[in-house]
Amino acid sequence: METWYYLDSGARTPAYNMAMDEKLMDWHREGVIPPVVRFYEWNPATLSLGYFQRVERDIDQEAVRREKVGFVRRPTGGRAVLHDDEITYSVIVSEEHPAMPQGVTEAYRVISQGLLDGFRDMGLDADFSVPRTEEEKAALRNPRSAVCFDAPSWYEMVVEGRKIAGSAQTRQKGVILQHGSVIRTFNEEQLFDMFKFPSLKVRERMQKGFRNKATPLASLMSPLPEREVMKEAFRKGFESALNIRLLPWEPDSEENRQVEELAAQKYEADAWTYKY
Fold first, then answer.
1. What pTM was computed for the model?
2. Hey, which residues are catalytic here?
3. Name one GO biological process term (predicted).
4. Stronger pLDDT, 259 or 130, i.e. the higher one
């Protein structure tokens, strides 16, 4: 059974979180570390943008400042996510790993099986989202809004058709990064306040549709499991789904210095955050 690293970073700044995911890709590419499964949280609560999102078009920056939330651009695609009461995961693994399909969609399925096993272990009747109709596939190509949880994509987690976790993936120089959010609770009004809409009527329509397409775990599980219980379920889920053993690991002082340096130079810089 193959051994991967397991890292629980705890609550970190937005820039640190994105820098750590990037450095894990670098270290794995260089052969310094094996593949990694990581869990982390956000301090402060943070609005993260997909790599290609346009700030001026999509985001109400005054509302972001007013709400005192962090603001960062991810290295992965997709739409904006408000990270607050959630568990965020990332998986870093080589494209050449024998368990990884070449296609992006199928790689989503293989990696996300760990989440699915974790949800089911906690008693949820979760399943993969598989867009089947032409209308559903068209909605993925042309999203209705800038909000990530507005609709599930291929192989994301749903319960009774409603999205409970969102993921994004990038491949850089032979290494896959897939990361995503498992939403425990969320403040819907705060989330929608931070996006631009053509009119109040459009916002209300989008918000109503959002409620029908996404739900936090708190609405499905009573009582809501503690974070540590959830992380343990997902840890076991990834082990079973990928047929691996996860070995706890922490970066050393030099590795942490590299992460902090990248966070300051790239992910805290306006040149990165406002590039589109």
1. 0.90
2. 148
3. protein lipoylation
4. 259
